[in-house]
Design goal:
By secondary structure, this protein is an all-alpha fold. It has one domain. It starts with 10 loop residues before the first helix and ends with a helix.
Length: 159
């Protein structure tokens, strides 16, 4: 008896899906961290660490960052937590759609990726960094690949 014909998975779509799901997991951790800071015990510990680090650091940027973290309001933490969870849901939806090789997942990811590119360009115009350029380049490459996959699928249906 022969094995049933198995469809080969698209390794690039799987890689993009894995990356989206990894980012989603990271966003959940960020959201949990933001909400954890609402707890008075956690906040007190964070403030103590901030104070200790401020005393032992002479790097201006780190000191300013720590001061800003100490001044964060509860409402801002709640908002950051909720936004992180919503973004994680969006990323998981993209990742699962791509992992399952669903057409809607390809369209959804292409649309979401394309929608963030203008914001990335705006951020680069404000202040160029290597990281911002790398993120833009990766997102443009992902978008170009998804458009090619979508076109290939559309042309195979019309032939």
């Amino acid at each position: 008896m022969s094995e049933p014909h198995r469809r080969r998975h698209n390794k690039w779509l799987e890689a993009i899906a894995f990356f989206k799901c990894a980012k989603a997991a990271l966003m959940i951790l960020v959201g949990l961290g933001a909400l954890a800071l609402l707890n008075d015990d956690v906040r007190q510990t964070a403030q103590e660490w901030t104070h200790l680090l401020q005393m032992h650091t002479h790097h201006r940027a780190l000191r300013l960052t720590l001061e800003k973290l100490g001044a964060v309001q509860d409402r801002s933490l709640e908002t950051a937590g909720v936004i992180s969870f919503l973004y994680a849901a969006l990323l998981f939806t993209e990742g699962i759609g791509l992992w399952l090789e669903k057409r809607w997942g390809e369209y959804f990811t292409a649309t979401i990726t394309a929608s963030f590119i203008p914001f990335e360009v705006f951020e680069i115009v404000k202040h160029v960094t290597g990281m911002k350029l790398a993120v833009l380049a990766i997102n443009v490459a992902v978008l170009a690949y998804l458009v090619a996959v979508l076109r290939r699928g559309a042309s195979s249906k019309t032939s």
